[in-house]
Amino acid sequence: MTSRPNRRYRTAAGTARRQPRVRRASGGLTPTRSAAILAMLIALGALFGLATTSAFGFRTLDVDGALLTPVEAVRSAAAIEPGTNLVGLATEPIAARIRDLTPVRDVAVSVGLPDTLRIAITERRPIVIWQTGGARYAVDDSGLLFAVVGPDPGGPTESIPVVIDERTDAAGLGVQSRLDPVILDAATRIASLTPAQIGSHASALTIRITVKNGFTLSSGPDGWLAIFGFYGTSQRTPELIPGQVQSLTAVLAKGEDRMDEIVLADTSAGTYTLKPTPRPSAKPSQSAAP
């Protein structure tokens, strides 16, 4: 019987030495590995239990920042059924659906365990209220009509100036309509005026766009009417408005209560008509004594 030859290698001195055997680690389960696998299985089981238990079912919708966005519209866009498990719920698809709502500029959606879905809305900012017919719309800085609003004393649109649009084609405006940039520019310039800025003692100013006169500004039913006119992209642009405002201020300084109609054709001067002077009433006739 032949013996298995030993493997040898030579040293620098030329002597042969036996090569040490390398013992490979066993591929079997060690106590440490067994404990790690057991912990992982327990964690997976716990996660499965959380994802299926009714204790974390959706019950409460918490909406913040929805001043002009109807909460019911937010709820409908979120499209989460009551009882839906909130553990591991993907929130980005919900946020994408809510961003499609016209009044919404941005939104953040988060889960508040055990049963709450939190939605924080950032709305478009209204710079003017556009009134046409019996409807009123909030308009943002891009000219987008993004929400229907009503007379809202003390509400989020109370201090926003109102433009009354009486043009024939204004009847077709609605949510998601967009105003012509020239119209929006002129409207916001004129609507931003206050009585104090033009030396008026009126309590409020009313801006209208009419078929006959274009942009007008008035101090009330029995007050004066200032005609600013029409604007375009070439000759009469909204850049005329600061000069027209100066002309209006100069005319009102001559006696606001006497002014009837003020025409602001250009920036140099305004022409005006005065209110009729009331005639003195006739003295009552006296019958002769008998």
From the structure above, extract its key features.
290 residues, alpha/beta, Ubiquitin-like (UB roll), Rossmann fold, 2 domains, 9-stranded mixed beta sheet, 14 strands, 24% strand
Describe the structure.
- This protein is α/β, with parallel strands linked by helices.
- It is 21% helix and 24% strand.
- The chain has helices spanning 31-52, 71-78, 92-99, 181-191, 241-252, and strands at 8-10, 16-18, 60-64, 104-112, 116-123, 128-132, 135-139, 145-148, 162-165, 206-210, 214-218, 225-229, 259-263, 271-274.
- The model is unreliable at 4-15 and 41-51 (pLDDT under 50).
CATH architecture assignment name of the largest domain? 3-Layer(aba) Sandwich
Count of domains? 2
Question: What characterizes the major β-sheet?
Answer: 9 strands, mixed
Q: How many distinct beta strands?
A: 14
Described by its quaternary structure, the protein is single chain
Distance linking N and C termini: 176 Å
| Strand order in the sheet with the most strands | 8-7-6-9-10-11-12-13-14
What is the succession of H and E elements?
EEHEHHEEEEEEHEEEHEE
* Unreliable spans: 4-15, 41-51
Number of helices: 5
Q: What's the Cα radius of gyration?
A: 39 Å
Residue share in helices?
10-25%
The fold-level CATH name of the largest domain is Rossmann fold
* Highest CATH level, the class of the largest domain: Alpha Beta
The overall pLDDT average reads: 85
Instruction: Report the portion of residues in β strands.
Output: 15-25%
Q: Any idea what the shape is? A: elongated
Strand pairing plus helix content: what structural class?
Answer: alpha/beta
